[in-house]
Amino acid sequence: MGNQLTEMLKGTLEGIVLAILSARPAYGYEITARLRDEGFAEIAEGTVYALLVRIEQRGFVDVEKVPSEKGPPRKVYSLNAQGRNQLTEFWGTWSFLTERIEQLHHHIDSKNDDDQQDEGDRS
User: Which InterPro entries would you find in this protein's record (predicted)?
Assistant: First the structure.
């Protein structure tokens, strides 16, 4: 699953992070920890921080610097209206893709089952 999962996550990680931020504002480490809690253990912290820079540049989040007990202030990201619109679009696209992939999967499985049955009938 490794390489395939990595490639698929590249296309969906933005939507996943926006979904996490739709629940409540968070800083980078919190987002990474939540991803790990949800089973995305392979995602590097650096990948999340690079994504946060991109979604900030694209205007999907508001950023507030909050004092930290240890070290420099933390950047807390919260989803704004543009980010919520992007998340809505992500979920619509995700639904479209998953429906088509499931249809294809069931069609191919059904076809393979029919082919195996035909081969069994010929033996």
Answer: Metal_resp_DNA-bind_regulator, Tscrpt_reg_PadR_N, WH-like_DNA-bd_sf, WH_DNA-bd_sf
8-state DSSP, 73: P
Residue-level pLDDT at 6: 80
Bridge-partner residues for 56, per DSSP? none
pTM of this structure: 0.83
Residues of the chain predicted below pLDDT 50 = none
The residues near 12 (Cβ < 8 Å, ≥ 6 apart) are 90, 94
For 43, residues 6+ apart whose C-beta sits below 8 A from its C-beta are 9, 13, 32, 35, 36
Spell out a b/e string for 83-93, using b for 16 or more CB atoms within 10 Å of the CB, else e: beebbeebeee
Q: Among all chains, which residue has been given the structure tokens 């429906």?
A: 99
- Which pLDDT score is estimated for 103? 94
Burial degree of 63 (CB within 10 A; 0-12, 13-18, 19+): middle
